Amino acid sequence: MIIDAWGQHPTPRHLQEAMFAPLRKWTRGAIPTEQIPVSATLAAMQQAQVDLMLISAWYGPRNIMISNDEVAEFVAQSGGKLAGVGSVDISQPMQAIREIRRCVEQLGFKAIRMLPWLWEVPPTDRRFYPVYVACCELGVPFCTQIGHTGPLMPSEVGRPIYLDQVAIDFPELKIVAGHIGYPWTDEAIAVATKHENFFIDTSAYTVKRYPEGLIKYMRGHGASKVLFGSNYPMILPGHAMEGLDALGLESQTKALFLAGNAKRVYRL
């Protein structure tokens, strides 16, 4: 089984967002002007033999690029192949708490994802704390991005060490930190080693670009701590996994990486 822990089925608003322009030099594709059908995402998953992809909403301080209701509709069209991850506006804390509850209790979402770089504040900012409380109460993971940003936004807020304080304040909160934390991957590994409920996903990086320290961690005491992710549609799941066998993972470790850890963390 393969579970992709970090994807999004994009809307035109998301694809056309100006801040993503620097990323297009890598994808080099034309920007769609109409909604991409869910069948296109399912086809990319099928080609890579991905059984399930977690797709997220995108809420920022200036706009909603993919709404929670849109994610719910994409999930409904997927025949069980997509699972929802919600997002909220942290500038309205009570509204954010109510929306998280709706996402989990009514829409059936599996986690909440927030990107500190979108808000230009670290995850220790007080506005994030109601989100952590709601996630703990509802028993769902908090997903976030660590490492430098592809869009031209400040990267400092993606330092993994900020999440050390969050994990201390909320030891029961499951934190899934995506994008491996480069150039602070060793820092991410240190936080994951220290905190039982802190995990790393490999989204936005192909296997061939994994830092050696992360590979060593996966082969050793971090076998239960790293989840596969692609960051679809920026990277197709199949492309993200190319060269996986060259990592030399034991069969059990490989199964945990591709699905087992995600099943456990997200209670799938």
Properties at a glance:
268 residues, alpha/beta, TIM Barrel, 8-stranded parallel β-sheet, 38% helix
Characterise the protein shown here.
- This protein is α/β, with parallel strands linked by helices and 268 residues long.
- It has helices at 12-15, 24-27, 38-47, 68-76, 93-106, 116-119, 129-138, 161-169, 185-194, 212-219, 237-241, 251-266; strands spanning 3-7, 52-56, 58-59, 64-66, 82-86, 111-113, 142-145, 175-178, 198-201, 226-227.
- It has one domain: Metal-dependent hydrolases (TIM Barrel, Alpha-Beta Barrel), CATH 3.20.20.140.
- Helix content is 38%, strand content 14%.
- The strands form 2 sheets. The chain has an 8-stranded parallel β-sheet, sandwiched between helices.
- Strand 9 (198-201), helix 10 (212-219) and strand 10 (226-227) form a beta-alpha-beta unit.
- Helix 5 (93-106) packs parallel to helix 7 (129-138).
- The two termini are 12 Å apart.
- The mean pLDDT is 95.
